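User: Hey, quick favor. My workstation is busy. Could you predict this chain's structure for me?
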Amino acid sequence: MPIGDFRSNIKRKFIQRIDFPNLLIYCCSKFSSPLSNFPVKIIKEQQDGLKILILDGRLDAINVEVVEKTVKEAQAEKGSKVLLDISKMSYISSIGLRVFLMSAKKAEADGGRFALCSPSSNVQLTLEIAGFVKILNIYNSRSEAVESFSGN
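Assistant: No problem, here it is.
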């Protein structure tokens, strides 16, 4: 079975995810995920040509596809300016970090801008450990981020 098929099969059958310090266990069954009660919420706003996406919840393998699709839609036009407000994000996995990195690369290639603002303490720590604070535009506040976009 190809890995992609295995992963999508796991997502369909996923019911419980148990995190231990160095171990991740997926318990599979035909029932839905208890985490499905806590999906990521995405609120879209626009301000002077700046597309703002507010992410609320967890960004992990369970919901990464919807976030990636939403960001890609916001970046559809060449030269688009996209700001992700991550102040309400409680968790981000490595696949969520990939979405941020790919979005930044696309913005750079298309002559646009991509930035993050207001990371929660948990997400900020993950960004620091992964080294993303050195390669992404990350602002402490939304107002600071919006002001940086108005200069361009």
